[in-house]
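Data card: per-record layout.
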Amino acid sequence: MTKRTERLEPSVRKIIAPILRECPRECGIVTITKIDVSPDLSYATIYISALMKPKAALEFLESRQRELQKLMGNLQTHKTPHIRFRLDTTAEEGSRMEKLLQ
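The structure for this 102-residue chain is written out next.
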């Protein structure tokens, strides 16, 4: 990750975080676990986790993508990254590996 993309991550977090609070209650607590910004600033991939229904949270955020993309236009960059959401599966992968090791 370059310094430019590292500086951009907190700004992206600030834009996305308020929308997370609007996720349906059925999802439980929804958090941003990681943000990857491509070196050329074309994409910002936002990894999320949800306590109860992660797929519902992902669908909700994708339904708000157009609005969030407009907000991303407020970033002070020469290029506005296109946002995309992904589920963070590291916890599930870790527990699967733990089961395999047992």
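Known properties of this structure: Strands lie at 30-37, 43-50, 82-87. The CA atoms of residues 41 and 79 lie 6 Å apart.

See the next section for split statistics.
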